[in-house]
Amino acid sequence: MTTDTHNERIANMTFASVYPMYVTKVEKKGRTKEELHQVITWLTGFDDAKLQQLINEKVTFKTFFEKATLNPNAHLITGTICGYRIEDIENPLTKQVRYLDKLVDELAKGRKMEKILRDK
To answer: Which Gene3D superfamilies does the UniProt record give (predicted)?
Structure first.
């Protein structure tokens, strides 16, 4: 169970502070920044230019997901990330951040793109 403090900490983290870690994580495993962007675009609807703008503005995850148009299939992202079962997370923002974490994780683990992008 996530606590209010935990949820608040996630909400106030900037996307710009976590983004380089996402890039490093996927590139270390032989995936590309382009593939990372494809995954982020699928989840949020942001194109590369919008993503760069949000990074430059150093928006918090709260603002990042407020501006996002969440993919209607995002609810199909399940499993455990950072010790939490995604489908059991009650805070909507924390759940959305964990969706993103899970997609990045699957990309880094070499999962096929069509499996990561849950279009069915």
So the answer is: uncharacterized protein sp1917 domain
Answer whether 38's CB lies under 8 Å from 111's CB. no
Q: In sequence order, what DSSP letters do the residues of the chain get, joined into one string?
A: ---HHHHHHHHHSBHHHHHHHHHHHHHHTT--HHHHHHHHHHHH---HHHHHHHHHTT-BHHHHHHH----TTGGG--SEETTEEGGG--SHHHHHHHHHHHHHHHHHTT--HHHHS---
Q: Select the more confidently predicted residue: 85 or 3.
A: 85
Q: Where are the domains of the chain?
A: 4-116
* pLDDT over threshold 70, residue 2: no
Distance between CA atoms of residues 3 and 91, nearest Å? 9
pLDDT, residue 83, reads 85
Band (pLDDT 50/70/90 cuts) for residue 90 is very high
The mean pLDDT value for 10-29 works out to 96
